Amino acid sequence: MKEVEVRRLFAANLLSVFSVILTAVVPAFLWDGFTVLGTHLLWLCICSVCVGTVNVILHLVLKPNRSPKRSSLAHKISRFLKCCIYFFMSCIVFHAIIVLYGAPLLGSVTETFLFSVLLSTFTTLQCLCMLGPNIQAWIRVFSKNGATSIWESSLQITTVCSILGAWFGAFPIPLDWDRPWQVWPISCSFGATFGYVAGLIIAPLWIHWNRKQLTYKSR
Question: Looking at the whole model, is its pTM more than 0.85?
């Protein structure tokens, strides 16, 4: 494992962390009355767009999973359209799962869907950037010892941390503390965001710490 590649991963992940931080700071200078709590739905939109844009740009620049084959323009367009469809389907699936776990079915549709978009940005969009619309590759990466590069190991960690963060974020909602951040889906989106940021920081550190034990096989 090359140390340079680990540093590239760490730098890319740090940029993603900064993009999350900026979504909470920059809009306050552009919109009067903007706060992450008070205008939470607006923040969900801004965070999803900014983090998604940064992820796409980083993968286009760094090309962690560069294919040796050159693809035609028609193939690239088809791949892009498939990625858009997969992302939208991911939002729908996350929305359904969140409702099954107890979110309001009709009362907070907008809030639940925007939270689903945020989760999809933290998880599915990364898979699409890294692996493309290839379900078999997704299954391989998230199976035991399925990662074939440090980038795929980072993908595993950040995805799991994002989902776990969203799950743990739901715990305070039913408590009778009567806090503004207990309104749906603020604590869950905070949990997912903190989980995503934690995964971005933990992944390169864990890979660096275990670099001697990690062996990747080409598949």
Answer: yes
